Amino acid sequence: RITAHSHPKPPPGEPAYDVYNPYLPLMSLFGGPRSTHAPLRLTDARVAFSVITMLVVIAALALCRGPTGPRVLALQSMTVLPTAALPLATGGDDLPVAALMLLGLVLLQRRRPLAAGVALGVASSMKITAWPLTALAFLAARDRDGASGRRPRLLVVAGIAGVMTPAVVPTAAANLPAFIDNVVRFPLGLSGVSSPAGSPLIGHVVVSLFPGFHRAFTIVIALVGLAAMAYVLLRHRPRTPAALSRLVGWVMLVAILLAPATRVGYLLYPVDFFVWAWLLKGEELADALGSEAASHALTL
Fold it and tell me: Cβ distance 225 to 254 under 8 Å?
């Protein structure tokens, strides 16, 4: 990471963006195999990304009780659809983050708020793209009886904080300006260094045509986005994991399209969230039918 009060100086012959590290501490665990003497084909981080993604997705779908169709599509969206297969082949660091978010949503649906918080805390300690869901997860928290309230919400927050506090806070506290530069300013294109994540989406095109408007554009988009989010949360607050997944899907879609520096590949997030919303809606119906059947059986 770059240090505070210094300008990034890349190694000779390498691009300036190589001195930035936009990932959070737990992402470095996937580089652990490189420190061993195992064959290079096994220590490639893409192998670990793929294996962890598959294991977490299988665990999440194993907890589901609803129709088979949505589960199959959820599995496909995380493995074989272009939005997943291409990242897995070329990099893949977004896939385990997405898989952990799926697990967190399914655990919320299964009314396990603490475990959901832990899963989301791990995802949020790997990459900032998990933060929108993590910040809103408490809204869909329920206890084992299906009741919302302070306790399940606090359990979600406790699970998140229990992971992120030891994983992220020491790194951020050691050099907060450098942390902000790496994790926030660089991904937003505000560090003065061009990011390789500059796909020709709306936001990137705007700041490319009007470079002097870059900072103002980013601030305006952020303020408008926060205002729109506040309105939605006041008028149409998501109360179920399905509704939460749908909302975060729209948030991620708009953010990816309008962000000054972003990748087309990041569209895997809204695609997955919309698929998961369908999956979780089926889980809601399955849970409701199961409850009604149980109630009917008890009255006989």
Answer: yes
